[in-house]
């Protein structure tokens, strides 16, 4: 069942590179503004930093995956 779900998701995987780049720059800027404060005792600040970090990593993964696919020959 998991294989069927993953294959179905893979068929519909078509990332928007412009949106990924906007998310990358926005989350990098937000993280750069949040890190100098670094009030990790505040749960709202920790949640915001974690969410922004996940958005940053997701954007990087999307852009790297697209570049990797573009450089490899099609099967």
Report on the architecture of this protein:
α2 runs antiparallel to α3 (43-71). Helices cover 76% and strands 0% of the residues. It starts with a helix and ends with a helix. The protein has 75 residues and is mostly helical. It contains 3 helices and no strands. It has helices at residues 2-11, 17-34, 43-71.
Secondary structure layout:
Layout: H1 2-11, H2 17-34, H3 43-71
What are the defining features of this structure?
75 residues; mainly alpha; 3 helices
Q: Which spans have pLDDT < 50 for at least 5 consecutive residues?
A: none
Rounded Rg: 16 Å
What distance separates the N and C termini? 26 Å
Helical content stands at: over 70%
Brief account:
By secondary structure, this protein is mostly helical. It is 76% helix and 0% strand. The protein starts with a helix and ends with a helix.
